[in-house]
Amino acid sequence: MPTSAMTSKYQATVPKAVRETLQLDAGDRIDFTIESDGRVWLQKSVPVISTELQALEATLAPEWNSEFDDRAYRDL
Q1: Of 23, 1, 2, which is closest to residue 12 (Cα–Cα)?
Q2: pTM for this prediction
Q3: Dihedral angle of Cα 49, 51, 56, 62, to the nearest 10 degrees
Q4: Sequence-separated (6 or more) residues with CB below 8 Å from residue 16
């Protein structure tokens, strides 16, 4: 079982066997899933396809596209 030490900044190196299995490269993002029994799973993040985001945005646009909303959320 691959292991890694935690640094003082709470960082750990992903062991080579895990990087190769998940096909991870520098800069890739990792998702963590925490189970109720304390187990943690990690997997390579899958980017959302931009066309899916555009379709979602189109469904929200009529509700969230007004001058009132622009003023209300400008400083967020």
Answers
A1: 2
A2: 0.57
A3: 150
A4: 2
